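Still learning. Show one?

>
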Amino acid sequence: MSNLQRNSKLLLYGQALSFMGDYCVLPALLILSTYYQDYWVTSGVIIVRSIPMILQPFLGVWVDRFSRVKIMLWTDIIRGFIFLSVTLLPSGEYPSFFLLLLLLSYGSGVFFNPARLAVMSSLGDDIKRVNTLFAKATTLCVIAGALIGAGFLAVGSVKSAVAFNALTYFVSAIFIGRMNIQSEASLKIRKAKMVESFLQGMKEIGRNPFVLNAVLTMMAMSLVCGVVYSYFPIVSQSIGEGEIGNFILTVTIGLGGFLGALLVNRWGFNSDRGLVYFIVLSLTSLSVFMYSSSFSIAFIAAVGLFVALEYGEVLAKVKVQENSGNEIQGRIFAVSEALIGLAISVGSTLVNFASTLVILSLLIISMLGLFVHTKLVNKLYVTTSNEQSSTIL
């Protein structure tokens, strides 16, 4: 940590706090949605949190043309004020307005992720180290955020968790405002047209098998996440009234993510061993989580699932950052975020009209398809590396 550059530290501090707020407010929003006595509102929370990402293929063009730091700064400020507005709504009333406010907040936030991911690639030469440290720090704050939210619920104020999230956005904006990315000056002089730039991003994904595999990995994992989030209130019912269970299950996101980040180097990048561990752990944990009638067993299974998903996420991001130019990464990440949002939204709705067996079967098919594609890409990686080594010799 002491060896990180100033910009890296500022981004890490700000985003750790922001993640703390995000995962303090997620279970709080799921709880508030249950007060409307309509499970489609619960699915709606996940959908409005994810569906704005579909706009990101077009927003990535602007991310690449303007100051990425300023984009991050203003989206944090806007989201903070909107979440403060959510706390003013009466519980269980005005469901449409409740979802509209969330849509506006998450809608303004779609500018943020492609900007952040592109900024991270400018923080230093050791991209793997920056990504791994980022994953470790933020996952710890996910745990802290969920525990803070549980504390608010314990004293009878779930809306305080929403207010806390707004506060973390404001503090994050302060850290971001102190960043100084010199390389951003060149981004402001680009004059590529929007459609042209969008097609460049799509073309890069289509022609580059490593980037395509990274995008497919993120889509498959997002479909799983959408399903798992929608099952949080259901699994939580196995302990008393169930509300506190939403916060406890949110802890698994951070705990599993932290452990998964630790395993990245051990399981390896582009390795068949890591791929097998990733697929087997994902499917086994998912099956146990969805079918277990014991909250304790479901909790352990959820930890295992998020261990696997964190490993897959780090690998996917590194594949994009190592196998594409920095000047086009904003567009690539924007397209991937759009597909992630769509996948999470689809996953969150399945619980309303499909049985657990059908949902699990669909997820198994998607993960096995990903396994085959990644296996082929890993083989290509080894072949390419051997050819490069032979050329050097």
The mean pLDDT is 83. The radius of gyration is 20 Å. The CA atoms of residues 44 and 99 lie 7 Å apart. The chain has one domain: 6-178+194-392.
